[in-house]
UniProtKB/TrEMBL annotation:
Positions of heme c binding: 88, 91-92, 211
Cofactor requirements of the protein: heme c
Organism phylogeny: Eukaryota, Metazoa, Spiralia, Lophotrochozoa, Platyhelminthes
Keyword annotations from UniProtKB, A to Z: Heme, Iron, Membrane, Metal-binding, Transmembrane, Transmembrane helix
Protein name as it appears in the record: Ubiquinol cytochrome c reductase cytochrome c1
Cofactor note: Binds 1 heme c group covalently per subunit.
Molecular function GO labels: electron transfer activity; heme binding; metal ion binding
Organism: Echinococcus multilocularis
Annotated localization: Membrane
Protein family: Belongs to the cytochrome c family.
Cellular component per GO, a single term: membrane
GO BP term, pick one: mitochondrial electron transport, ubiquinol to cytochrome c
Length: 341
């Protein structure tokens, strides 16, 4: 902490005079008002900034995995991986995704092993200190199309193709933005001029990008016979990229569903136990209250008789003791023959 800042802080603190607890209430209130006004001002200033951007905001789409208990469409994930492999992998990498993570979600284990066996991975060093090439394994990451960033920029007119592993979560609008970006190419409006090698897309900030329209009809052939239209390929590709960005989506929902079931059952059992426990305590309290009136030191026969007749039904052997005590207090008020009947 610098000396100037320390001196400024000391002068500010010296001006604050808090004499008692009541004087702190206006101070806290003023601080809350200042913080609220600052937050409102920041939001108000952010709105014009977004309004000046030449961008069309994507429409929210009804994705099947957005439901509370919905999971990914694994057939769509499989087709989306095929679109990435045959179309997008020529320029974009997914270097944070391993082949083993595709198992049971996108591919079977045998298919994943066959996929990774087609690539060569630089490994080493060996016993001689040299690097060597080996076939891929399930633990290897998906290969990148370029060895480094400079090579990628040189091959794409200076633009660097981003990695697609987490692209669906790294953009405002999430999967809706990626879908509209893939399908939103169109002719520029009148008066809008583009440089050589640029294409117009209203969903991209600024409207101009160097990526050519990546999808067109019947570009790939799906094994399940699904028509390979532009919208279908974009939907499947975005589903795959969304899964790549959040691979624990289905597992998290399963755990949440099980936790909710356990909490509901536990709440019901706790309520039943509390009800039974409360009822037992109430019966015990009522019995203790009535029994407290039935004592040998009672001098009034009316109190003894009323206490006796309002008691809960005692066991049979308890009547003999009751008769003896009543006769000791007032032999005439409660004859033995009457109680025996």
């Amino acid at each position: 902490m610098s000396a100037s800042f320390r001196g400024l802080l000391t002068r500010l603190l010296s001006r604050i005079r808090i004499k008692n607890y009541q004087s702190t209430i206006p101070t806290v209130r003023h601080l809350c008002l200042i913080a609220g006004a600052t937050a409102v001002g920041a939001v108000a200033l952010a709105v014009p900034v977004f309004a000046t951007e030449l961008i069309v905001h994507p429409t929210k789409l009804n994705w099947p995995h957005r439901g509370m208990l919905s999971s990914y469409d694994h057939a769509s994930l499989r087709r989306g991986y095929q679109v990435y492999k045959e179309v997008c992998s020529a320029c974009h990498s997914m270097k944070f995704l391993a082949y083993r993570q595709l198992v049971d979600h996108v591919l079977t284990e045998e298919e994943a092993k066959a996929e990774c066996a087609e690539i060569l991975v630089t490994d080493g060093p060996d016993d001689e200190g040299k690097m060597f090439q080996r076939p891929g394994r399930l633990t290897d990451l998906l290969p990148s199309p370029y060895p480094n960033r400079e090579a990628a920029q040189f091959a794409n007119n200076g633009a660097f193709p981003p990695d697609l592993t987490f692209i669906a979560k790294a953009r405002h609008g999430l999967e809706d933005y990626v879908f509209h970006l893939l399908t939103g190419y169109c002719d520029p409006p009148p008066g809008r001029e583009l440089e050589k090698g640029q294409y117009y897309n209203p969903y991209f900030p600024g409207g101009a990008l160097t990526m050519t329209p990546p999808l067109y009809d019947e570009q790939v052939e799906f094994a399940d016979g699904t028509p390979a239209s532009v919208s279908q390929m974009a939907k499947d590709l975005v589903s795959f990229l969304t899964w790549s960005s959040d691979r624990n989506h289905d597992k998290r929902k399963r755990v949440l569903f099980k936790a909710v079931i356990v909490m509901v059952i536990g709440t019901i059992l706790a309520g039943v136990y509390k009800r039974k426990k409360t009822a037992r305590c109430q019966r015990t309290s009522r019995r203790s209250e009535l029994t407290s009136h039935f004592t040998p030191h009672s001098s009034s026969p009316q109190e003894v008789n009323s206490a006796f007749f309002f008691l809960p039904a005692p066991p049979i052997h308890f009547f003999d003791e009751c008769i003896i005590r009543l006769e000791a207090v007032s032999p005439c008020s409660c004859p033995r023959d009457y109680l025996s009947n």
